[in-house]
Amino acid sequence: MAQKRSDSLVRVLLQGSDPLSDDACRQLLAVHRETRLLDFKETFDPNNNGDWCELIKDLVAMANTDGGYVIIGAANDGSSSGCDLTGAARLDQAVVVDKIGKYTDTQPSEVSVRYFSDGHNERVVFHVGPADLPIVFCRPGTYALSSEKQKTAFSAGTIYFRHGSKSEPARQADIQRAFDALFSRRRREILAGVRKVVKARADEQVVVLPKSVRLTEDAAAPGVRLTDDPSAPAVRGLMGSGKYGSEEEELAAVVRNLETDPEAYAAAAQLWRFYTHRQEIRANDRALECLLVSSIYRYCPPYYWASQLDAKAVAEICAAEGRKDMYPGIQVAVRLAFTIGGTAGRKVLEQVVAQSEYRSARALAKRLLPKTVQRYRVWEEYGCGQVTIRTRSGSEQYRLSVDDLASAEALIDVALGSGSKRVLVKKLDALVYGTRLERQAAGSN
C-alpha cells in the first residue's frame, strides 16, 4: 500500500508543469522507497563508464514505461548516502542527452537534470518523460568491473521497461501496453481533429485537397491559399525532403521556415552538416541567427554561429530566450550571456536569477554571474589541458592552450572527421569559438 501511495505521488509530480521545481524535488526527498517511477543511486561518477551505463539503463526503461526520476545521493531507503556530488551537480542536460543518444541513436525530447538542496540534504535529480515509441539499445552497455571482469548493463537490440523498482528486458505485455498507449494517443488526436470539424461555424468550410497538390520548397511553385483573402500569405511546406543544390539553398529554406513558424527549427542532422561545412557557408546575419537558435534547441554546437554575429545581437537573442524561459533555450542562453559578459550579459543572467521558473537555470545563472568579469572565463569554465580523439586506428592525444586557439580550432575538424563523440566537438566549440566571442564582446564593451 505504501509503495502504491509513493507511486501515485511521483506520478502527480511527473504530470506537473515543472517536474523539477523546488516543491517537486522537496516532495521527492520525502519518498523513502523506490518505485516503478523512481530509482535511487547512492553514488555517481561522471567519469565512470559503468555509472553512466546503469543510469542510462534506468532512464531509458523509465522513458519506455511512463517516465520517471533517478535520484543521485540517496540510499535504498531514500536517506542521504553522503556521497560527493560535485561532479554530478555540474552535469549539463545536453551531456545526458548525448550519452543516451550514444547507446540508442535516439535523443529523448524530455530529459533534464538539476542539483537540489533543502539546507540539510543534497541530491542530483534526473527527470525523463515518456517516449512515444519504445527506445531500443543499439549498442551494448558493457563496462569493466576489474582488469579481468566485465559487466553488461544492457545488450544491443534490447528494450528495457520498469518492473516494480527494477529496470528489466521487455516482456510481451510491455510491448503490447506500449503500443496500446500509442494507439490511444493517436485516437485522441484524431478525435480532437474530428471535433474541430464538427464544431466548425456555419461560415467556415473544410476542404479536402487532391493528392496532386503537394508541398514543395520550390519558391517558383504556386502557393495554396486556405482563404478567399487574396492578400493572405501562400502556404508552402516546412522542411521538405527535397534535395538542395547547395548548403546556401538549404540554409535559405531553414530561414524561410523559421520566419513562417518561430519553432520550426532546423533538424539536428542538418545542423551538424552545416557545422561541418561552417567555413564554406556564406551566411548573412539573419541566417546566422536562425542557425544559432536552431542549435540551441537541437543540442548542437552554438558558439561558432554566435561568434560570427555581433555580441549585441547575441545578447538580444539571449534576452529573448530568457523571457521565453523554455528548455533547453534558457540553459544555453545563460551560458552564452556568461560568455558575453559586460552589462548586457549580466543583465540576462540577473533576469534569469530573478524570473526563471527553472531552478537549475536560476542556479546556473547565479553561479556564473560573479564570473562574468573574469578574463579567460570561458576557458576557465570549460577548459582542459588535453583532449583524446579516437580513430579506427587508435587514440591520439592533443594539448590545448588558450593562447593557441588556431590549433584547437583545427582539432574540431579532426574530431568531426574521426567520428568522435559529439560531446567532444561541443566542448571544443565552446573553448574555441566561445573564447573568440568573449574577446569580441570585451572589445565592444
Descriptive report:
The chain starts with a helix and ends with a helix. The radius of gyration is 24 Å and the shape is globular. The strands form 4 sheets. The chain has a 4-stranded mixed beta sheet with strand order 1-2-4-3, with helices on both faces. The protein has 2 domains: 2-170, Methyltransferase, Cobalt-precorrin-4 Transmethylase, Domain 2 (2-Layer Sandwich); 301-444, no CATH class. With 445 residues, it is of the alpha+beta class. The longest helix has 27 residues, at 172-198. A hairpin with a 2-residue loop joins β7 (160-163) and β8. It is built from 17 helices and 10 strands.
List the uncertain runs.
235-242
Strand % is 5-15%
CATH homologous superfamily annotation of the largest domain:
Schlafen, AAA domain
Q: Pairing-aware structural class of the strands and helices? A: alpha+beta
The general outline is globular
Q: What's the CATH architecture name of the largest domain?
A: 2-Layer Sandwich
User: What is the CATH level 1 assignment of the largest domain?
Assistant: Alpha Beta
What are the secondary-structure elements, in order, as H or E?
HHEHEHHEEEEEEHHHHHHHHHHEEHH
Q: Average pLDDT across residues?
A: 85
Strand order of the largest sheet: 1-2-4-3
Largest sheet: 4 strands, mixed
How far apart are the termini? 62 Å
* Total helical elements: 17
Total count of strands: 10
Q: What is the domain total for the residues?
A: 2
- In percent, how helical is the residue content? 40-55%
The CATH topology annotation of the largest domain reads as: Methyltransferase, Cobalt-precorrin-4 Transmethylase, Domain 2
